[in-house]
Design brief:
Elements lengths: L2 H9 L6 H12 L5 H14 L3 H13 L14 E5 L8 H10 L4 E5 L9 H5 L11 H11 L1 E5 L6 H11 L7 H13 L5 E8 L8 H17 L3 E8 L7 E2 L1 H12 L5 H18 L5 H13 L2 H12 L5 H4 L9 E6 L4 E6 L1 H11 L15 E4 L6 E2 L4 E7 L6 H11 E4 L9 E6 L2
Parallel strand pairs: 1-4, 2-3, 4-5
Antiparallel strand pairs: 5-13, 6-9, 7-11, 8-10, 8-12, 9-11
Helix pairs in contact: 1-3, 2-4, 2-8, 4-9, 4-10, 5-12, 5-14, 9-10, 12-13, 16-17
Bound molecules: uracil (URA).
The site of uracil has 6 residues, from helix 9.
């Protein structure tokens, strides 16, 4: 195989064969094909795209580069959820517990946060002692016993994707739908799932800024799932303002627990119920969406979701007292309100700006090796459609001495709220549903 010829063919808009893609991925993972050639190929793919067959071949090659969990010995459908990443999105925590409490098996393998959106692992690790590095055998046993376990991606899951993603990250080739779709699905398929629910975020705080782009990504992800015999449902959901009120790891755990106690912000609850209900449908636990939603709501109302979350925490060596008494979670020493500069109605809250402010406080990481502070973050006090008087708080900053100075953080945050005469209706959250065959 001459890699040069493959790059040239893709550059001219031609297609690569499955065997060629498999050899490319194997050669790159083994360090036999130089980064420069793979970077050039990624750039050619960025401009020329890939056929469905090419995307399937790339996904299969990256999947095969590592281990694929075998959960076939466990009865029942194994279903996971994947979000393309949003600010304040802590749905995975309550959703995993609720889906399991309703009879779905949830083998959840998550990532750490990078950039302005947080990662599920970072949130879970805000619970003192919580381990996300369970050995695979223990992970599988826990999915069998509790119906759910949440771990981090191991080095043995899709190593080719890890290498390729790092190269794309420094060559401006991340934002390519075939490359994103194969990257996401190679990792999800390695979990040994039967079906997958996708939360494809759209808006200023999301990877996909437009509805058309999100729809295209969702279609690519559903198409790959179909090629691998997995059922995939995607919800396109708004990510213009943060989800819920809390942005920051321990703060988001508190909000997730509030939801499981029957409280929490309405938008977080709506999205958690919708996504979990889709999991119940895919697992065959419910036949219709209204029935599935009612089952999830019942698991919140009667405390089964919270009880299952506590069991997960105990099984993964976290301190369950932090679930009953969230004051045991890491807490920032100072809580400083950011006042509204003028009276009016909130017309927009820029999720990306809030995510970046939380990152500047130490809640997120700019580089993989950065350490995060689980206690810090931002809690919104006003969201779109709500009225605020001048001087009333728009949000609270939870912080310590590290991170960007408070003046700079307050200025960033105040600029994230657009206040006008109103009235403004609260925007819709679930924009569209796309389901595979
Ligand atoms: N998330 C991934 O896992 N891969 C991508 O390529 C982009 C986002």
């Amino acid at each position: 195989m001459r890699v040069y010829e493959l790059i040239h063919r893709k550059r001219e808009g031609g297609a690569l064969g499955a065997g060629e893609i498999a050899a490319l991925v194997a050669g790159f993972t083994a360090g036999e094909i130089p980064d420069a050639q793979v970077a050039a190929l990624c750039m050619a793919i960025f401009f020329k795209g890939m056929t469905g067959a090419e995307v399937d071949a790339l996904t299969a090659a990256m999947l095969r580069s590592g281990d694929v969990l075998d959960l076939s010995a466990l009865p029942g459908a194994k279903v996971d959820k994947h979000s393309t990443g949003g600010v304040g999105d802590k749905t995975s925590l309550p959703l995993a517990a609720l889906a399991a409490a309703c009879g779905v098996r949830v083998p959840m393998v998550s990532g750490r946060g990078l950039g302005h959106t947080g990662g599920t692992l970072d949130k879970l690790e805000a619970i003192p002692g919580f381990r996300v590095d369970l050995p695979v055998e223990r992970f599988v046993a826990q999915v069998g016993r509790l119906g759910v376990a949440l771990i981090g991606q191991t080095a043995r899951i899709a190593p080719a994707d890890r290498r390729l993603y790092a190269l794309r990250d420094v060559t401006a080739t991340v934002e390519s739908i075939p490359l994103i779709a194969s990257s996401i699905m190679s990792k999800k398929l390695a979990e040994g799932i039967d079906a997958l629910v996708l939360d494809v975020k759209v808006g200023r705080g999301a990877f996909m800024k437009t509805r058309a782009g999100a729809r295209e990504l969702a279609a690519a992800l559903i198409g790959i799932g179909r090629g691998f015999g997995k059922r995939v449902t995607a919800l396109l959901t708004a990510m213009d303002q943060p989800l819920g009120l809390a942005v920051g790891n321990a703060l988001e755990v508190v909000e997730a627990i509030e939801l499981l106690r029957g409280g929490g912000p309405a938008d977080l609850r709506e999205l958690t119920v919708e996504l979990t209900a889709e999991m119940l449908l895919l697992a065959g636990v419910a036949a219709e969406l209204p029935e599935a939603r009612a089952a999830v709501a019942a698991a919140i109302a009667d405390g089964r979701g919270l009880a299952r979350f506590r069991e997960i925490v105990i099984a993964q060596e976290g301190d369950p007292r932090a679930i009953d008494d969230p004051s045991r979670l890491p807490r920032a020493p100072r809580v400083i309100p950011v006042p509204a500069p003028a009276a009016g109605v909130v017309e927009a809250v820029d999720a990306e700006a809030i995510g970046l402010a939380a990152m500047a406080l130490g809640a997120g990481r700019a580089r993989v090796e950065d350490r995060i502070d689980p206690a810090v973050g931002v809690v919104l006090r006003r969201k779109v459609g709500e009225r605020v008087e001048a001087g009333e708080p728009l949000c609270d900053v939870h912080r310590g001495d590290a991170g960007e100075p408070q003046d700079a953080i307050a200025a960033r945050l105040a600029a994230a709220w657009r206040i006008g005469p109103g009235p403004v209706a609260a925007p819709p959250l679930v924009l569209e549903r796309m389901a595979g065959p």
